[in-house]
Amino acid sequence: MKSFKLHSIGIAICALFCLSCSKEQANYIDTEEMKMGFIAMETVFGGSNKAGDFRQAIPQCSEETPTFARVVLTHDLGEVDAIVPILSDDNDFFTDYDDELAIPIPSGQNSTNVSLTDFMVYAGNPENNSQLPPIWVAPKEGSEYAVFVNNPLAINFKLGAGTKKYVPIEVLCFDDREVNQYGYQFFDVKPLSLIKFCLFGNYCAPDTGKHYVAGYQVNVWQGTDASGDLLYDELTSEVHFKENGEIYYAKPLCLWLPDRSGVDNYYFEISINNTAEYNTVDAGKVVLSGAITDAGIKMYYNEDNTMDYYHFRYGCESENAPPFVVPNQ
Predict the structure, then answer these.
(1) How many C-alpha atoms does 200 have within 13 Å on its Cβ side?
(2) pTM listed for this prediction
């Protein structure tokens, strides 16, 4: 393993780069491939303008050698979630060519819009080991660690037909105990077996008792209270208006939760929100909370592999079913 200065400050900078082109050029390739754009990565080590703060704020880097990267991006014709090999020379690490990073260009267009949303580097192949954590992660905009890089994810750019694109990506050394500070959910970076759980809510007006489709948001922690790992932060339901019929409607809000061996507990807090259809003085208030186990969630599954959702009601006469209760009751 080469010794890098980044190990003392806990930061690496990765750049999307084509090895066959200079960083300044966007060379065209054969006309037979003119409706594809190409992306690859090279690691370039350095610091941001806040490197002096890293020693106290960012975890130390692993001494393991990076061998694979996970890249998640969207483009005009779809999404890519690819595991790509990393190679090395005397100075740098870089990705091998991978067909999944050949991005199609829409018919009749000369370029496509690309948004890089997730970037993680591993010392091994995560496809062969679902419990393998990354060693470097690119932080996301709005996360606590975003301040330690100059350009957090998501990074948006145009990719031209027949070109190979260079886009810098900064990554920080990773500690899975602080996963949310990078802007990722726990199971984004440590793949696990998942279990699905869905909710649906109604709100009743205090003066008329009229039922409305509820707007609400959900926070979820691993464990039996809010001291565990944060799994979802302010996940918000969407209430839509259907003009043909003039009704408001919503789909159940579904979450994917880590399902390990043994008993898993998940602690929920559900807050009521205003919608375009109603306003309540309790907007933002936690109206239900409590813990549910993976076994409790599986009780909502039916024999035909369909599932029921947890249906709660706020301000209505009927009581809500366990395990969620009004706080402090």
Answers:
(1) 10
(2) 0.51
